[in-house]
Write a structure and sequence with these properties.
mainly beta; Methyltransferase, Cobalt-precorrin-4 Transmethylase, Domain 2; four-stranded mixed sheet; 14% helix
Length: 444
């Protein structure tokens, strides 16, 4: 992502000259008999998925989604407080702004966004000149609007369509986050098979751009004349560390990592990427072993020998807290030699492994244990799903269940989690949830 800043007056002039619509979500706070703007989020030049205009009005707060001409947002860049803005029948005063406006150029389906957009955007963050302003906390109950115990969960439900009450994030402390859709050209859905990568390209000015498929072992380029589907042949399967770059000269228009094992990749399904799995499970295992250890793959030569070696399983909670992953038991540390796990009954070994995980990891993640014969030797494969209740901890000492240890995966290694890493990994592992009851718009 690229970042920079722009003078508030220059940004205001750009907004005044815009002939596009802005799809606004605003949080207003009552001040006496009037309303003040606490925060405005807007997407300019494109409608957010499943967009609908709606109002939730409570005694002290109002949540408003409304479409207006983008030029009417120019007042947000003024240092003078008190300028009015009208949204869905509400007239609210805008606090003064302080510059400059910081901007960030983001790709479509940007990683770590709770509600990623399917188009690339440039974000402009405008700060309030009043450092003392605070959002008053109230129980929110009103006729014709959903009820909430406090404003934070209400904002997440309104802005993201996520009505879960646990871990609700606070509304941004910035006065405004204005996102301008970059509609020149962008990457749409991606479909990967064992022999090709098909990429949908959208935009109003695609002609003359170039799509690059980048991988460790294979790289290819195609010049584009119009929107449509672009196909790359990958006769040896999807290369390791595969990226798609949509560019014009030295300027990127959009990009996406489509390697499920890459640390730059989140939930591929959320990012519009579909990868067809091989119908031959044995071939999948062979391919995993050949790929070597990485962010979502680890090899172990043997199984832990009871509770004293529980720390061998530290990658299980790291995978569950993050994007999931696979541990293969029966592979030498050289990542090449298949040592196998002896001649014990495979079913008993699978049950033993799952029981070890159940005793060592809290809460219990979703895991699947499978066995395969490779070159006549038995291996176990433990698939760990991304967890729904992160963070996940390791109980290395059976007598200290109240003191779990937390880990994260970085590259091909597992490390003790720092607080900031754990927060980031936890947020990244949580997909947007569908609303549990009727709402004017769903998650997007």
């Amino acid at each position: 992502m690229d970042t920079g800043s722009i003078d508030l007056d220059d940004f205001s002039a750009q907004l005044k000259a815009s002939d596009q619509d802005a799809y606004v979500r605003a949080l207003l706070q009552r001040k006496g008999q009037a309303w003040d703007v606490y925060h405005i989020w807007a997407l300019i030049g494109a409608a957010p998925p499943q967009w609908a205009e709606t109002i939730w009005e409570y005694k002290q707060l109002a949540f408003v989604s409304h479409r207006i001409p983008a030029c009417e947002l120019a007042s947000l860049s003024s240092a003078k407080a008190g300028k009015p803005i009208t949204l869905g029948g509400f007239q609210a005063s805008i606090p003064g702004a302080i510059g400059p406006a910081n901007w960030t150029h983001r790709p479509s389906y940007a990683l770590h966004e709770r509600a990623p957009l399917p188009v690339p955007v440039t974000d402009f963050r405008i700060a309030s000149s009043d450092p003392t302003r605070q959002l008053a906390h109230h129980i929110l109950v009103a006729e014709g609007a959903p009820s909430f115990p406090e404003p934070n969960s209400a904002w997440r439900a309104f802005s993201e369509g996520d009505f879960s009450l646990a871990g609700a994030g606070q509304p941004p402390d910035a006065l405004a986050l204005l996102r301008i859709a970059e509609s020149e050209a962008w990457i749409g859905k991606v479909h990967v098979t064992t022999t090709q990568v098909a990429v949908e390209i959208h935009g109003i000015a695609v002609k003359g751009s170039e799509l690059e498929l980048f991988g460790v072992s294979d790289r290819a380029y195609q010049r584009l004349d119009e929107p449509g589907t672009v196909t790359f042949t990958v006769s040896r399967g999807l290369p390791q560390s595969t990226w798609l770059w949509l560019k014009r000269g030295a300027r990127w228009l959009d990009y996406r990592s489509i390697d499920a094992s890459s640390g730059w990749t989140g939930d591929l399904s959320r990012a519009g990427v579909e990868i067809e799995q091989s119908v031959d499970p044995q071939a999948n295992i062979d391919a995993l072993i050949a790929s070597g250890e990485g962010p979502q793959l680890e090899f172990k030569e043997r199984l832990p020998a009871g509770s004293k070696e529980r720390k061998m399983l530290k990658t299980v909670p790291a995978f569950a807290t993050g994007s999931g992953g696979t541990i293969i038991f029966g592979i030498n540390r050289d990542e090449v030699t298949i040592t196998g796990l002896g001649e014990e009954e495979p079913g008993k070994l699978r049950d033993h492994l799952v029981n070890l995980v159940r005793a060592a990891v809290i809460p219990m993640p979703q895991v699947t244990a499978s066995h395969y014969m490779i070159s006549g030797k038995l291996i176990l494969v433990l698939d760990v799903e991304p967890g729904q209740s992160p963070p996940y901890g390791l109980i290395s000492d059976p007598n200290s269940r109240d003191k779990p240890e937390f880990y994260v995966r970085r590259g091909a290694s597992t490390y003790p989690a720092q607080p900031s890493e754990l927060r980031e990994a936890t947020l990244a592992s949580q997909p947007a949830q569908e609303p549990r009851h009727t709402t004017p718009f769903g998650p997007w």
